[in-house]
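Before drawing any conclusions, I looked closely at one protein's amino acid sequence and its backbone structure tokens, quoted below without any editing.
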Amino acid sequence: MELLQSLSNSLLSPMVLAFALGLFATLVKSDLRFPDELYIALTIYLLFAIGLKGGMKLDGMSLAVVGGPLLAAIALSAVIPVWSFFLLKGVVRLDAANAGAIAAHYGSVSAVTFSAVLAFLEIGKVPVEGYVPALLAVMEAPAIIVAIFLAMKMSGKDKASKPGDMKKLLHDLLTGKGILLLLGGLAIGLLCGKKGFEQVAPLFDAPFKGVLTLFLLEVGLVTGRRLRDLKSAGWRLVAFALVMPVLHGLLGAVVGKWCGLSLGGTTVLATLAASASYIAAPAAVRIALPQASPALYLTSSLAITFPFNIVLGIPLYHAFAKFLFNA
């Protein structure tokens, strides 16, 4: 009953319904479009707001409190692409480049899915640790680096790659807008504290859900345009994109409970482990693995895993987290 109630709350939220509207608009061939500049502006707002609010809540917390969850999040991000890579290569039957590209997406995380789980928990009045945006920030890069290394190693291209190529990749990962806005927002929020955040709260607090709703409308439009790529993905990749997020989410919930997170924090870590990146990972993969097919890694992460997590995954991970805490 709790799972059904969580599922009902998720399906009837404005964010999920806006995503469904965008999907429907594409399927009926509507002329609804978002200007590219608006999409970029919404992305910048969401990432910076997440970091800013998280940094504000970090004010006064010690490393002893946040150290364990941060290390656990980094470990999850580093190991998930390893088994994902070998499953994609052995079971889904992809070459090393495509297996590495998809593994990078599934080991990394989605900031929009993170925003959605925060909104879901807020609707259910479930408290969350203030430092959870830091978990999002530290899980972005390790998976991408591990997956690309595996792809280069298995395809025999690690010797051919120049040290400058890996240096450029690391630079692009660490200075990309996703990580830069998250870490920069965290630093600003931490330095300013709660009193400083109150000065900008009318812009970065109350409007957050509304901006997220608009963003998910745009994501629905993009996802709808990617649905046709499912034919080229194959049933094995579709199965991977549906099954692995659930397994990763359950693992994330167990790790979250083990490292001392609350019910809300455990749900967030489970959702992050289950999510798939489609902002940072595609940019890095285009640089390091240009031979990988965008139709495969974008379709699996954006057209399959993302809507599954938004509609069904988040309430499922929350229900499993509740089971762990009750047990």
In short: Residues 135 and 284 are 20 Å apart (CA to CA). The radius of gyration is 19 Å.
